[in-house]
Each structure stands twice: as structure tokens, then as C-alpha cells.
Amino acid sequence: MNLDELKALEKAARQLEPSPNQREGWNRAVHAYSHAFLDSLQERNAYDAPAVEDGLFAVYPEEGRPMEELLAQLEQWVDRQGINPASGRHLGYVPGGGVYATALGDYLAAATNRYAGINFASPGAVKMENELIRWMCRLAGFPPNSLGNLTSGGSIANLIAITTARDALGVRAERVSKSVIYLTRQVHHCVQKALRIAGLAEAPIRYIDMDRQFRIRPDALEQQIRTDRAAGLTPFLLVASAGTTDTGAIDPLQDLAAIARAEGMWYHVDAAYGGFFLLSEKLRPLLQGIAQADSIVMDPHKGLFLSYGIGAVLIKDIKAQYRSYHYQANYMQDAALESGEPSPADLSPELTKHFRGLRMWLPLQLLGARPFKAAIEEKALLCRYFFHRAQEMGFETGPEPALSIMIFRHPGSEQLPAEQANPALIRKIWEDGQFFLSSTQIGGEYWIRLAVLSFRTHLQEIEALLLKLQQLCKELGLPIAQEKR
Ligand SMILES: *Cc1c(COP(=O)(O)O)cnc(C)c1O
After folding, report:
1. 23 C-alpha to center of ligand 1: Å?
2. Name one GO molecular function term (predicted).
3. What is the pTM of this model?
4. If you measure from the C-alpha of residue 13 to the centroid of ligand 1, how many angstroms do you get, rounded to a whole number?
């Protein structure tokens, strides 16, 4: 065998391993880029109109290109367009985080590339992830033998909970059409999406009436259950929200727990947005009853201010989750011999996966819990502050915010009625770009949402937003009340 070919291939392949010098150079350039980005956040917009050129990222050259050139493309074509979730003036949808140490956790996880899916392959990584899940279980008041999974986000976390519920209650194909699911119109759309993916699209879905604060009405739920029972149907799944996306409303978790238990239903609480308000001793009572859920979703990339890419599902009966997700394959026989920590691969659809625990563990350990607790409480207070100031300025508001999301709108003027004034105001906010806010429809009416959850949003940003709203309303000819202060 002629080894020349092999040697030529090796020479080219070895370029996959940069020399220490090359590594150093890349690191320097990437560091400089991320520092420049973070240091310029004050000047950067929260929203820039998109201007992507077709084909820009479609070039895959035979020979590599210099890092500086690539970073310049990143800056121009990614980091200067659309929503800027790193900005403290991002107050739309549910703002993401981006606590810096998340990036370092990702960097280390990728550089060392531990295999975090299987306990046999990396007992340390699996232990770390499971302990993080147990920390969240304790936060929610779940018993010590509960577990769950670190997911890519809240959507997959909800999907895991729903499939586990389906299998735990034995809702097989022939029973789907008789197994009733209860939720409200304010539930996050990823729940309906998960129901469809989980093969539950044909299950009867009941949207229960809400009170004026957009919380599920337990009496209406009980009434519906009686009707369903009388029709020979079986209540199967109750989905509550602990912090809805539209208004941050928290369903009456305790009352719902009692109903779910009495009816033998699986009780799922989607706390993707609201879960980490449990960190605040002051706000924790708002989520009273969450400990009685069978499964909970919370999103560390929301309320724990981490960068996008980490959600969590917590499941009380870990055996139920295991029954839904474990699988045996011949080539996995070595892993099957292990004992001890349950493997993420047996508790989720994933096998090979990102070691995402490190991006959560590192910030929590580096900074301690205190700044996270302070920040989450600060966000709730900031939202309440805006709520009162907006009312003083003559805006209509929805319910007083329970957490850190609220809705408001301008009542409009004779020339510009509310249904036109508020979309116009949103467009102006986006054109201006300094702030990003989003809108929603509630009961057929257009509302502007304020969602305070960026760890970079402080009093200064909220004051500046109030001034900005004043200015933009003036430009639209919309009256603003003189504040009594
Ligand atoms: C954000 C959110 C989700 C979806 O989570 P992702 O992390 O975006 O997949 C689900 N439920 C609620 C209440 C949310 O706020």
C-alpha cells in the first residue's frame, strides 16, 4: 500500500487542529469582538431593521478565511440586524439573557467536548446536570427523588412533560379521542404544538374561561369536567401557566392541584417564564401550589438570564419519564451496565447532546445566587413602576402585573383611534430602534406589551422608555397627560 496518499490527506486534515499560535490569534480576535460588542451595548439599538443579502452565508470556500473577515461579516449581517436580545432596552416578547459566564461555560463545554448524554461516558457532566435539575426541583418544592432534564428551551421541555403524561396515564391511540385536555387560551402556543407532536391532536381540548386577570377559573373548569364525565370522557391532562406570555398571569395553582388530584389528571405547570421568580422570597408566595404539580417547565434562558439554549423540565415521578424515554440498543450495552446517576439520554429524546449544564453551573457558581435573586425581584418592581407611571401618563393598562409582564395602550385621539394609534406607536418604536416592544391581541383588541426580564434593564432604561413614549406620542399627535410629580 502506497502511504503517500494517506500522508497527503493527513497533511490537509491536520489543519483541523490549530497550532497553539493560531489558537491564540483566533481567541484574541473573538475576545476583542465580544468585548467590543458588550462595551458598545449602550450605543446599540434594541432593534434594527433587517437587510440580509441573499446568498451572503452561502459561500463555502476550499481554503479557510481569516477570522477578522468572518467577524466583520458577523457584525454587519447578524449582530446589527433584527432584535438585539443582549440590550437592556429589549422589552418585547420574553427578553433573553446573556449573562457573560454562560458563554464561557459553552466555550469550555465545546473545547473539552465531554459526552453529557450518558452517565457511563461522563459521570461528572451527568452529575453536574442532574444536580442543577435537583436544585430547581428543590426551588419548586418537589421531593428529593424528582428529576427531569435540561433541554434546549421551554418548548422541548413542555414536549417531554406532555409525552410523559400521555404514557403515565396510558393514553394510547385508541384512548386519545376520549382523554380530555384542559387549558386556557393564554397558554403558550408551544403547548398546543407539543400536543400535536405527541399524537394528541385528536384529544378533546377544552379552553376554560378566565377571570379578568386572565387566570383559569376553577369553577368553570369543574363545570366542564362534570360535563365531560357525563359524556363518558376521561379528564387526562391539566395545563396551568405560572406566568403567561401575554400578561404574566399566574393560574390559581393550588386550587387547580386539588382538582387535578381529585380527577386523577396529570397536572402540568408551564413556568417557562415565571419559574425563577421562585428565587425571590417576596414573590414566591405567588406561585404557591406549584409543588403539587406532576411536571413543571422553567427556562433558565429566561428568568435565570442565561444565553439562549437552555430550558428545564422537572418531573416528580422520574420512573414515568424514564418509561417514556429510555431505550436499549445493542451498541449501547456498555452504557447499560452502569448504575448510579440517571442518564439524560434515558430521560429525553436526545442521545448525543450539548453539555449545557456547564453554561448554567458556571454562572451560578461564579456569581452565587444573590445577584440572580436581586435581579428577578428588581424586574418585577420595574414592571410595577412602569405600570403606575404609564397610568399617570394616561395610558390604559391591563391588570396590575403579578410578575414582570404587563399590557398597555394609548386610548387614542379623535383623529387617531386606539385601534390605529397603538399599531402606529409600535411601528414608531421599531423605526426608532432604541427600544424593542412587542404587541398582542387580547379579546380582539390590540395591546402593547412590556416584558421586563433582561438583566440589563434597570431604572435608567425604564425612565428613558417613558420619555421615549412621550416623544413618540407627541410625534403622532397623541395626547399625554401631565404627570402629577
Ligand atoms: C417562552 C415560553 C415557552 C417556550 O419556551 P422556549 O424556550 O421559547 O422554547 C413556553 N411557555 C412559556 C410560558 C414561555 O414564556
Report:
1. 37
2. pyridoxal phosphate binding
3. 0.96
4. 41
